[in-house]
Design a protein that fits this description.
The protein is of the alpha/beta class and 183 residues long. The chain has one domain (2-179): 3-Layer(aba) Sandwich (Rossmann fold), CATH 3.40.50. It has helices at residues 13-29, 50-53, 57-67, 79-85, 101-105, 131-144, 146-156, 176-179, and strands spanning 2-5, 40-44, 72-76, 93-94, 111-112, 117-120, 123-126. The longest helix has 17 residues, at 13-29.
Length: 183
């Protein structure tokens, strides 16, 4: 499997490490190279560095070029802005970190949804930071099936607690998925 992860200065570490951890656990359950078709995917994490990278023509060209051959392109957090700058989000549903939802809406050509993660064709995006882990598990389930995603989830002991701390689910800027029952 060929799976690229873009890493840049001031990247949010959990945006790529969480999904990467799910990918490495998935590789333990894959059927082996002979039975696994070649896969080409690209993950674009977020972080403060995205504010500069949206104007980096070398990076944007790399992403746009790679995306033409990818089966899926995924973003975590503000990686959605890099994905947009590379021409991949126009007319698509997408999400990002709750603090950047209005900025994503302001782009005008993205249908912004307040979900933990969303898929629109071969484009996946997630809310901020830890949401990338949920995105990757859903992605694994879509590619390799529920059982494989379950094995990865079990191996990672990734069963987020339903406890919400501090009442921030009632914050004026809390996205819809936090206000709902599951968190």
């Amino acid at each position: 499997m060929n799976f690229g992860i873009v890493v840049f200065n001031q990247v949010e570490e959990l945006d790529f490490v969480g999904p990467w951890e799910m990918l490495t656990m998935w590789s333990k359950f894959a059927d082996g190279p002979a039975n696994c078709p070649p896969l080409d995917y690209l993950l674009i994490p977020g972080g403060q560095g995205t504010r500069l990278e949206v104007s980096n023509p070398v990076l944007l060209d790399f992403i746009a070029t790679q995306a033409r051959n990818c089966k899926a392109v995924l973003s975590v957090c503000t990686g959605a802005f890099v994905m947009h700058a590379a021409g991949l989000l126009s007319g698509k549903k997408a999400t990002t970190h709750w603090g950047s939802l209005e900025r994503l809406r302001a782009l005008g050509d993205v249908h912004v949804v307040e979900q933990r993660f969303v898929q629109d064709g071969n484009v996946w995006s997630s809310a901020g930071v830890s949401a990338g882990t949920d995105l990757m598990l859903a992605f694994i389930a879509s590619v390799a099936g529920e059982e494989t995603a379950g094995k990865v989830q079990f191996a990672a002991e990734y069963y987020p607690a339903s406890k919400k701390y501090g009442g921030f689910e009632n914050h004026a800027q809390a996205p819809a998925y936090i206000k709902s029952s599951g968190g």
